[in-house]
Design brief:
With about 375 residues, the chain is of the alpha+beta class. The chain is built from twelve helices and twelve strands. Helix 4 packs antiparallel against helix 5 and helix 11 runs antiparallel to helix 12.
Amino acid sequence: MTRHAHPPGGEDAVTCRAPLRVSLAGGGTDLPDYSAEFGGDVIAMAIDATVRVRLSAADRSELRWSDRTGDLPGDPVLNELVASVLRTHPDWAHRSWTVTSTADARAGAGLGSSGAFLVALAGLLSPDGSADELARTAYHWEHRQADRMVGPQDSFASAHGGIGTLAIGTDGEVRVSPLTPHPRSAAWIDNNLLLFDTGISRDASRIVAAAKQDDDQRTQEDGTGRSSRRTEQLHAIRALVAPFRQALEEGDVDRFGPLLTENWKLKAGMGRGVSTPRAEELLALCLSAGAHGGKLVGAGGGGYVLVSVPDRALHAVRTAMGRAHAPELPFRLSPQGVRADRAGSCEPAADKPGGRRRDAPTATPRQRVAPLAGDKELS
């Protein structure tokens, strides 16, 4: 991964992109309140939908956001975080700048967009950093400086790319072990795992905090001294990592759907706000149309549903989701993690060769990123 802090030619600007991620098994066990006591294990994969960040000198300091559906209002917490990071960076502390961020999917959609954004920003500011170093920096910014209840899977999956297991130690150290899927599994990921948008955005850290508050209250009222229900469910979610890894490595694609469904049943029972009527409706429609199984991606509360669909049911599932006004986000597994955007543009990877799922004729082509019509100033 080679980047330039200041590109040749005198233009004081740099652009970097980082992939979004999809958690397949073990999501939630990377959260600090669980992993600090028990450790955690997650299988996550990077997808070719990306967040692109451009940093350039300007007359005033500002941050601009956009996604594929239009302009975003921005995130006040991240706005202040970016401002504080740049104010203390030796290259940018004493000048004005513009940070422009564009993405292939909505913010708050369960695909780790905040983590990917911060990984790309870390890549801009530390062009010689390793994937581990950039992931640790991004996670520190979000978890420590922004004080968000998040785990490290977003930043590490985005920084490294590909598909792998993340082992989180009780000391907070993260070890990434790349997986080599069986060719049948790799083809299934690209063609038969589908993402559909519920249309609901949410703050993942707030969903997690609310679920934990419910669980703490239930545990206190129980008064038996037993492990909390949330802890027991996270134990069970963690136990799904080994069979999912085995299915990936052996090409047992028929197991993907049931394992996703089992993961979702455990996650949905963890507290208020995790499941929603809209998510349950979409999952039920997919199953009725022939999907093997699925789950809501991320912490819950909204975002995207991920379903595993055999070839014979692809058309029926897509038709059902079209009628339910749940647009598909076509994707492929991204072998690359954070990287420089050498073209200097912010065009989505999906609009470049290999970026679109070309062997799924009924898939909706990914839209181009909307123009940046508005900006969010930072004080």
